[in-house]
Design a protein that fits this description.
The protein is an alpha/beta fold. It is 30% helix and 18% strand. 42% of the residues are buried.
């Protein structure tokens, strides 16, 4: 298919660490107040933390207390907490720069969360709390965050395998191995573009791309564009494209927030209600309402946050039924209509992209079997930033801190328990 970019245990036992390191860790945990003070007074532009180097560089690989995979908001939030606990860790990030997953999104993208919901633990988003940052401002904020707290991020390191040997996890990136009793996978649920199988039967003359590869209208051929998938990405790209193309948006309407999004009512009332209460507390794996809503969120995403049906109408976007297949190289809608378009943008979401995790932790749907980030079947293994890990906010900026705190609390408790056993 043309133009589709595919970026994209210690079961009850103590961690395997030497006695000296164990004592150091127990001490570090008691002294975490000192680490705190340093972290609460960040120095922008300071060098990356040398203190968070490996315990030892062994022939088998570098050894850490914790290896974090992924240096987006979820991984950095975990890193912030690990640093406060005084643990030795590294964050491995596949991209060349921290924030690149935001930078690579489409040119006109502004966050749908106002800046007041875009800060992370220990650092608020700069500027007006009411503004909607650009994707590049968000990317730069993440880079500044890592620098301010001296988080040990290694960029350009793509993990290609996670396994366990005995009681230790082995993380492999290229020829390099990292060893740890604890691993946090924070590589997001948005890594591998998902397109329906029938996309392969589309006429090669029709230009196709996935929303993850969309930057601006100049990538498309002149003429008509069909956007498949009417969630937030589909609706926002539809508005972007409607300036230059005739646009059809195919798919079920997922609902929307029914107030003017940049109004005072939205800012003071509706947005806090949706993000802080509904997406953060009411809908969660611990509430009946949340458990009922979770499959819907996982399969189709949430409601439209910023765009409303009226915005689409005013932009001239034509809403059509779902695409059900292909006939003679053209997309066919569920109502049998065949659309003669020059471009298709698949806004059909992502697969988790966890095929590099060689551990038996996946359920029948291919998702990690975890509760609030803790994988019961693989002690010492954790996730952060999964869609609806705890609630819809788990995969949003304002939910990253809470999930990170919980996962790191578990890790610290486990290490303390291990230290107590070994010292005794
Ligand atoms: C178009 C779009 C707009 C959004 N807008 C908002 C918004 O306005 N507000 C909001 O709160 N949320 C928004 N979100 C949701 C969410 O906040 C973002 O998707 C955010 O980037 C998720 O952060 P993360 O750290 O979980 O994942 P990512 O930002 O994707 O970070 C994961 C990192 O892991 C790295 N990685 C992946 N695999 C590996 C590997 N094998 N080895 C090493 N590193 C690896 C990646 O390179 C990446 O940097 C939006 C999402 C999308 C798709």
């Amino acid at each position: 298919m043309a133009n589709i970019s595919t970026e994209a245990g210690l079961r009850g036992a103590a961690p395997t660490v030497g006695i000296a390191a164990t004592r150091w860790r127990a001490g570090a945990l008691l002294e975490q107040g000192a680490a705190f003070t340093q972290l609460e007074a960040p120095t922008l532009g300071a060098p990356a933390a040398g203190a968070a180097g490996p315990d030892s560089a062994t022939a088998g690989g570098e050894r850490f207390d914790v290896v974090v995979i992924g240096g987006g908001q979820a991984g950095l939030s975990v890193g912030y907490r690990l640093a406060r606990e005084g643990l030795k860790f590294v964050i491995l990030e596949a991209r060349e720069r921290i924030g690149d997953s935001w930078r690579s999104r489409w040119d006109s993208l502004r966050l749908f969360t106002p800046a007041r919901f875009d800060g992370l633990d220990g650092m608020r988003f700069p500027g007006s709390k009411r503004g909607f940052p650009t994707k590049d401002e968000m990317a730069d904020f993440l880079e500044q965050y890592a620098a301010a707290f001296r988080l040990p991020v290694r960029t350009g390191v793509k993990v290609d395998e996670l396994t366990r040997v005995g009681q230790e996890y082995v993380v492999t990136a290229g020829g390099t191995r990292y060893l740890a009793a604890h691993v946090v996978v924070a590589s997001a649920g948005y890594q591998k573009p998902k397109v329906p199988g029938f996309a392969a039967d589309i006429d090669p003359a029709i230009r196709q791309l996935h929303s993850s590869a969309y930057k601006n209208p100049s990538q498309l051929a002149p003429g008509g564009a069909l956007l498949v998938g009417a969630g937030n990405s589909g609706a926002e790209i539809a508005i972007d494209l409607a300036r230059t193309h005739r646009v059809w948006l195919a798919g079920r309407h997922p609902g929307h927030i029914p107030v003017k999004y940049d109004s005072a009512v939205a800012y003071h009332l509706v947005v806090p209600l949706v993000f802080r209460i509904l997406f953060h507390r009411l809908l969660s794996v611990d509430t009946p309402l949340g458990r009922k809503a979770r499959p819907q969120f996982l399969a189709h995403g949430g409601p439209l946050i910023r765009v409303k049906p009226g915005d689409l109408d005013r932009a001239g976007v034509v809403r059509v039924r779902r695409v059900g297949g292909v006939s003679e190289g053209k997309p066919v809608l569920e109502d049998g209509r065949r659309l003669d378009v020059d471009n298709i943008v698949w806004c059909t979401g992502y697969q988790p992209g966890f095929d590099w995790i060689k551990l038996p932790i996946f359920d029948a749907s291919g998702r990690p079997d975890q509760y609030r980030g803790v994988v019961a079947g693989e002690p010492g293994l954790y996730f952060a930033g999964l869609p609806f890990q705890h609630s819809p906010s788990s995969a949003m900026i304002h939910g990253a801190a809470r999930d990170a705190r919980r996962v790191v609390d578990r890790i610290a408790r486990r290490i303390r328990a291990g230290a107590a056993v070994q010292v005794a």
